[in-house]
Amino acid sequence: MSPWNQLRIKETKTEVAENTQQEPDDNLIVLSGCGTSGRLAFLLASSFNNLLKGQSKKASYCYTIAGGDKALMTSQELPEDNPELGIEMLEKVRKAVSFNMARSDNIEGWHSTFQQVAERIQKLHDLHKGYIINPAIGPEAIAGSSRMKGGSTTKILLETILLTAHKAVSDNSSITDRCLLDMLKSYEQVHKNIYSHSTKIATLVKHAGASLQKNSHIYYIGWKSLGIIGIIDASECVPTFGADSSHVRGFVNNGFEEMANNNGDLSSLGPEFAISHEYFLKTVLPTIQENDTVVFIFTLDDDLKEIEKIAWQVKASTTNLYAMWHSTTEHQVPQQLEEIFSVAINVTWPKLLSEDQGSYIQRFQYELSTKWVLNAISTGAHVLKGKVYYNHMIDLRVSNSKLFGRALSLLQKFTGQSKSKCFEALLQSIYETDELNEEIKNVEISKHIQWAATMNKVVPTAVVTLIRNCSVSEAKTRLASCPIVRDAINACMTGSGLKRTAEQRETDEKEPGE
């Protein structure tokens, strides 16, 4: 890390530390984001409010997420395009930490581009009235899927900034380089620890992929914040891979009571918002089949008797039962519990630190390592299902302006057609017609997105129509005849002589050393 970056981080931490010393009624720290960033905002606000409560202090953190609390559990991409809603949600902001990438795209209904908005926020940063977290970390494993590297880096940076600031306030001490480096090294230990379990993680990915290939499901059964990590991972599969909300689901003990979100219990909004273990046992468990995959996520400080009881109930329906748990060196998992699971990832950490902040460092280690494993499971499973083509989300759900633009880019990349031709093919796929009238062509992009968000295989259908120069119905028939999207597109590419062109284009676009 460069000295300049260290200075910027230290300056930010000092500002936040000053906030936490004030009365929270007068100074509120707001974490704000869309999608993955908004879910991280929720998770971090909850963690640091709990830390303050443990110190007999008032909560001084809050979060905002595009789409409101519904977006914590389900895909709500369209509200990301609504600037008026964003203004309404941020009216109460005094100090804000915003984190998201800025693009030069226009915002419908707004007079500025994303980049221009970011530049304005940069000016607020210079005045110490706001901060931007926008980590530049190179290409993602799945192009454009910032939920993995980008999300993890944002989590690390914010936890480092905020926890170090809290420690300085609590100890009435200054923030030092040593304090910063010690915190960052704790995350380096997470990397080393979790990668020592690569073989077992790969086994889980393989079995989860087999479940999705057979049109079965992946369920995460978690406790406390690790259960929330599971819910977050599941919610991101819909826009990223065009998955149905039932394909990957997460559940947490005590449901919304454990979530402690702004709007409380949302289970009345529909089954996709039911997240408690009670709902899982009553409604989901009776439907579980042998091909489903169930992953338990917990620590040895959780109620092991309850965990064992639920695990035996699940095992009666499927043998694809797996677990990831966290323990410290002085704890051992009961043998009868370990034997229930086909594969168990036992992540062992050094003895718990005694001070309050130390326990939170360890909690953050648990969360980050769990995030990495679940990201690997859900991403790897969808790769095996054929939802990724040449490192790209070929079957993404076109549910906001960002994803609409990405869909257009993918069509151009893999077919070599002009932007106008790809735009037309995308609309044909969205509206399931070969003839587009001028009215459809000229409506606002947001109208196309509203329709596209309800459709399946929009991008693959458009790719096939362009490659084969065929009708939408023929493209859909070709895709339906091959359950793996990647294989269907490969077959079309090979038959048209475009496969080699796509491979060469991918090679040409790789960055040096990638």
Task: Walk me through the topology.
Blueprint: H1 3-20, E1 29-33, H2 36-54, E2 61-65, H3 70-73, H4 83-89, E3 95-99, H5 114-126, E4 130-133, H6 149-171, H7 177-195, H8 198-213, E5 218-222, H9 224-235, H10 237-241, E6 248-252, H11 255-259, H12 277-284, E7 293-299, H13 304-315, E8 321-328, H14 335-338, E9 343-349, H15 356-384, E10 388-389, E11 392-393, H16 401-415, H17 419-431, H18 438-442, H19 445-452, H20 458-468, H21 472-480, H22 485-496, H23 499-509
Parallel strand pairs: 1-2, 1-3, 3-4, 5-6, 5-7, 7-8, 8-9
Antiparallel strand pairs: 10-11
GO molecular function: carbohydrate binding; enzyme binding; enzyme inhibitor activity; fructose-6-phosphate binding
Domain SIS: 17-95
Domain Glucokinase regulatory protein second SIS: 195-385
What does it look like?
The chain is of the alpha/beta class and about 525 residues long. It has 3 domains: about 180 residues, Rossmann fold; about 190 residues, Rossmann fold (3-Layer(aba) Sandwich), CATH 3.40.50; about 120 residues, Orthogonal Bundle (Helicase, Ruva Protein, domain 3), CATH 1.10.8.1080. Helices cover about 55% and strands about 10% of the residues. The strands form 3 sheets. A 5-stranded parallel β-sheet has the order 6-5-7-8-9, with helices on both faces. The longest helix has 29 residues. The two termini are about 20 Å apart.
